[in-house]
Amino acid sequence: MIGISVALLSGRSVHLQIEAEASVGALVQRAENELQADLRALATPCGRILPRSRRLREAGVQDGDTLSAVLGRRMLVASFGAFALLGADGRVVSWGHPLYGGDSSFVNDELTDVESLWATRHAFAAQRCDGSVVTWGHSKLGGDCSDVKDQLRDVKQIRSYAYTFAAERGDGELVVWGSSFCTGGPIRQQLKEVQQVEVSCNAVAARLLDGSIVTWGHEDFGGDSRAVQSQLVGIIQLRATCGAFAALRFDGNVVAWGDAACGGDATKVCDKLKQVSQLEGCGRGFAAVCGSEGRVVAWGGDCRVPSGLCGVRSLASTLGAFAALCADGHVIVWGDEEAGGSCSVPLLCVQEIKATSAAFAALLSDSRVVAWGAPGSGGDSSCVQQQLYDVDEVQASCYAFVALRADGHVITWGGASYGGDSGSVQEKLASSLCSANKAAGFPLR
What we know:
HERC1 protein, RCC1/BLIP-II, Ubiquitin-like (UB roll), four-stranded mixed β-sheet, 3 helices, Methylamine Dehydrogenase, Chain H, Ubiquitin-like_dom, mainly beta
C-alpha cells in the first residue's frame, strides 16, 4: 500500500491508501468519492496528466506524493448511433446519425452550464445546473420533451429506459417522456423503483429496487415470465438477447425465460450455473462467468465456448460473438468471425473491452487500443491507430467507437454516419479542449 494525497485548487485535500498496482482510474474514483466532486483527471506537480488506465507504479506515482485534482471531468455518452461529449466548460458536442441524437444544432444555444448527460437508444438528455433539461434525437423515442417541458424544473436526476427518459424533481415527482413501450403497462406506477430495464426484440423486463422482475410485451420474446416468477427474487443483474431474458440472483443462481432458441431455457446447463458473478447476452444466447475459477457456461444459439476456458474476469459481447477478459489480462474470443469472434493479433495486457454490434475494442494497460471485428462497425482502427495512445476511455455506439485521450483529444472510427466520423465537429471539440485546458491551467496544444 502507498499513501497518496489528492488536492483541489481550493486547498481541500484527501489522503488515500491504495495499492501501487492499482490504476490511476481507481485512484480518481476513490478521490471523487471522498471529495464529493467530479474529477477530469489527476496531474503531477509539474502539470503532467496521468492516463487513467496506467498503474500508479507505471505512472511514476510514489508513496507520499501529492497529486492535483482537475475538476470538470468530461463526460462521454453513446446512443445506438451517435455520441455526445460534455466538456469541462459545461457545453455539449454531439455527432453521428441525427435520428440517434447526432445533431444537436437546433438546441445548441440551450446546451450551456450542463451538469450531466444521459442517453436512450435514440436520443440524449442534458441536465443543466439550473435544474432544467434539454433533449434532442428521435422525437418519439426521448428526443422531444416539449409536452412536459413546463414540468422539467428543479430536476435532480435523470434515468434512461431504452426508449424513454424519466426525470426526478426535487419535490419527488417523476416526469416521463419518450416511448411508452418501456414505461407503460404494469410498471407505470412503479417507475421510481426501477433499477434496470432490458429489451428483447418485442418485450421488456424491468428490475426493481426490491430485486423483483416485471415483464411485458410479446410472450414469445420473454414478455411473459409467469412460469418462473417465483424464482425471480433477489435479482442483481438482468440481461437480454433477441428473444429472451436471463436474471442473476444474489445467491449466484440464474433464471432464464423466453424463446429457448435465444437462451430462454437454461435447464440443460442449470447444474453448471452456480456461483455466477456475471451474465452477458449475445444475439441469440447467454454466457455466464461461474465459480471462483472463472469458468464460462453458455446456452442458447451462440453457446460454443472454447475448451478449457477459465480464469475469466468479465465478458463482453457483440450480436454474434463473445470476448472473455481473463484475470491475467489476455482475451479469448469466440462466435461469428465477422462479428468479432476471431482476432488476428495477440490480445494481452487488456484492461477493458467495449463492443459495438459486430466489433470489439480493447483498452490496453499501456493506454493503447486494439480493435477487431467488422470494419463497418469499428473493427478496423488502422486509419487512426497512430492517434490511439494515452487513452483514458473508450465508448461504443452500435457501429462505431470513440476514444478519449488523457490530453482531451477525441478519436473516432467505424461507421461514419453513426459516430465513426467526427470531422464535422472537430472545431467544436478543439474549442472544448482549449477551454478545458485553459481552465485547468495546462498549456494549450
